[in-house]
Structure formats: C-alpha cells, structure tokens
Design goal:
CATH superfamily of the largest domain: Nucleoside Triphosphate Pyrophosphohydrolase
Helix content: 25-40%
CATH class of the largest domain: Alpha Beta
Distance between the termini: 36 Å
Number of strands: 13
Structural class: alpha+beta
C-alpha cells in the first residue's frame, strides 16, 4: 500500500506544479498520507463509544452525565497543579513560531491574537455523593496559554516534518483520559433558555480562530486563571466562568442559581474538554438582545444570535439545516432532556434524525 500511495502522490505532485495549484497539490498529499496512516492501524484497535442520537453518530465522548442528573456547586471542585506542562519538541516549535508570528503582526499594527492565559485539563475524578448518588466531579488543571491552544487544538491536523499530524501521533483510543499538553482551553459550554421558552444559539465570527462562521450553543467560554478565581482559594470557580461568559459573549446577567451543569466530556474532532450545562434567563429573548445592544466585552467572537423554540421537534428540524459541532449537539440534547425528560426527547430524535 505504501508503494501505491507513494506512486499516486508522486504522479500528482509531478503533474500539479504550477503555483496557483500548490494548495490543491498539498491537500492531495496530506489526504494520501492520512489514508496510509489509517490503513496501517492494527486490526482490533480499541473502539470509542461515541455519542449517538437517533440514527446519527457524533464525534463526542461522554465522560459523565446524561441530562437527567446534574452537579451542584458543592459537588464540583477544582485544583491547580503548579508544575509546568511538558511540551513535545514539535509542539514547542509550533508554539514558538506562533508567538513570533503574532509579535511581528503586532509590531506592524496588523490584526493579531494576544496570548491570554488558559487552563489545560490534567486529570479528573468522577464520583457520586452519599447517600443520594448525585453527580460529583473533581477537576485538576495545569496552566497554559492561547498560543499553546493554537499550536495544539488548532493544529491537530497540520502536517509535521515527518508527514504525520498531532492527531495521528497522540489521539488514539480509548481517549478517556486527557493529554495535558493537548487538552488546552478547558471551559464551559452553555445553552441559555429565555422566559418565553426560546433557546438562544450563536454564530461564531468569521474572525474566530476555531470554527469560524459556524453555528454554536449560546456561548463557550474557557476558564480564565485570573478572572475566574474563587473568592476563598486561588483555584478556579466554574460558575464564575459561566457568569462571565454569559455577560461577555451574550451580554446577559446570570446568577449561580440560574446555572445547571449536566455533565462533561470531550469533543473528539477538536479535542476540546468542556463542562456542559444550561441556564434559565430571567427575561425574554428580545429583552436579552436589547441588553446586549448596549455593549458586550466579547462581541468579536460572535457574529449573530438566533432563537429557536425550546421544543425537541423544533430543535432537531432546525439543526438539520446547519452545521453544529458535536459538543453543541450534546449540550442541546442534555438541555432538552433536563426540560422534557429522556423518553420524550429520544422519541423526537428518532422521528427527525434519520
């Protein structure tokens, strides 16, 4: 197979040589390398139990939660491991190149990305309370930054010098435990419901570094090591992240009691680990947008907002017309289950997701 693929790549590369077609040539070579890698995987490789809904499979691995049960503030705890993350040489090289590129843009007064602090998920501990067996979760983080995020999450499929990718080297089944240097940008993925029973969805800005222009849940916000610190400890408070994200991204105010975290897991396409939840607003969707019109700190990440009826049939019909990443599907499913119950939501999904 290696000889065949090598021959194909060689012929294509020999024919497609004009500069205007270089991008096409590189894409074909990249695809051929990936096919070779997949063909060479040993038989009997571990399988990943991806999220299923209706007849559809989504690129998401549920670690904990089902939509029917939830965490509470006392059952979610966070700690920070102060030891530095060890970056493999190829990742450090990518990060250094990104840092140099953005510094050059800044000096030239060109649009650039600043290097904000982020957390990477080192490990987690899932538990249940006694005697009620409510969801319980402990998250252990290490400090990272946005340039590391760009060098990993945004570069999973970039071809390295040896022809492989970060995804091929490191993301192999079963993938239930995080890889700290790759699990950068842990945060919250939240669905907002208004008092007139509307779900607020967003469309990401075309300037966003990841998934530009795509449909999303109400907002996704990474934990900020400084802005989201708990009052009594130097560790992060997930609820503060959700409250800040709602204000900066949507322009609405939330209180801790409005927020319900329903589970967490990892989106396998983007290797994004997030806590997933929903929140009830204290006003209608139109009132929320009126409040946002008066100013929002994070408008650059979101181009527009969309409202849909918070009913399973309406949600599945709407999503069939647009692209939404796997974590968004899980967040909406768990939100609907929390509101309507699993039986009704699953029956609706079977009717509409064929």
């Amino acid at each position: 197979m290696e000889l065949i693929i090598g021959a194909i790549v060689g012929v294509v590369a020999a024919v497609i040589f004009q500069p205007p077609l270089e991008r096409v040539r590189n894409a074909i070579i990249k695809h051929a390398r990936r096919l070779f890698y997949l063909a060479m995987k040993p038989a009997g490789s571990a399988m990943i139990e991806k999220f299923h809904l209706g007849s559809h499979e989504f690129n998401f691995l549920v670690i904990d939660g089902d939509g029917e049960h939830s965490y509470t503030p006392p059952t979610i705890s966070c700690t920070v491991d102060q030891s530095p993350i060890s970056l493999p040489p190829e990742v450090k090289e990518l990060r250094d190149a990104i840092e140099a590129r953005e510094a050059k843009k800044r000096l030239a007064a060109e649009p650039c990305h600043w290097n904000g602090p982020l957390y990477a998920l080192k490990r987690y501990v899932v538990g249940r309370t006694v005697p009620n067996e409510d969801l319980e979760l402990r998250l252990i983080f290490q400090k990272s930054d946005y340039y590391a995020f760009q060098a990993t999450v945004e570069s999973l499929d970039s071809v390295l010098s040896d022809g492989t990718t970060l995804r091929q080297r490191y993301l192999t089944p079963p993938m239930h435990q995080p890889i700290p240097f790759l699990s950068v940008g842990f945060g919250v993925s939240l669905v907002l419901l208004s008092t007139d029973h509307k779900i607020i969805l967003s469309r990401r800005s075309t300037q966003s570094g990841v998934r530009p222009g795509e449909l999303d849940v109400s907002f996704v916000e990474g934990i900020h090591p400084d802005l989201d610190r708990a009052h009594s400890t130097p560790c992060p408070d997930i609820y503060r992240t959700a409250i800040r994200g709602a204000n900066e991204e949507v322009g609405v105010d939330l209180a801790e009691e409005d927020i319900v975290f329903l589970g967490f897991g990892v989106d396998l396409e983007y290797y994004q680990w997030n806590l997933i939840g929903m929140a009830h607003l204290k006003y209608t969707a139109s009132e929320a947008f009126a409040q946002r019109s008066r100013g929002s700190g994070g408008k650059w990440e979101t181009r527009e907002f969309i409202t849909i009826d918070a009913h399973p049939d309406a949600v599945w019909k709407f999503l069939s017309k647009d692209k939404l990443w796997a974590m968004g599907w899980v967040a909406l499913y768990w939100t609907l289950v929390h509101e309507y119950g699993r039986k009704k939501v699953d029956a609706s999904a079977m009717r509409h997701l064929r």
